[in-house]
Amino acid sequence: MSEAERSNRVREHRRRLALTQAQLGAQVGVSRQSIVSIEGGNYSPSVYLALRIAAALGATVEELFPLHEEARR
Known about the structure:
Pfam families: HTH_31 (PF13560). By secondary structure, the chain is mostly helical. It has a single domain, classed as 434 Repressor (Amino-terminal Domain). About 65% of the residues lie in helices and about 0% in strands. It contains 7 helices and no strands. About 20% of the residues are buried.
């Protein structure tokens, strides 16, 4: 599993719902490229955007963007 895949679970949840990156982006009001960057771990969404993504995917922000063990200490 890559670092990006460990840093967030947006791709996993999006695929489970059979949504394209463009479809998810349209639902939350951002470009497909923004979704690509978020899934790849190259961009951390604002809290507001993270909440919109979580709502669109039927998940919580905590499920999509879990804290790393190091951050909990």
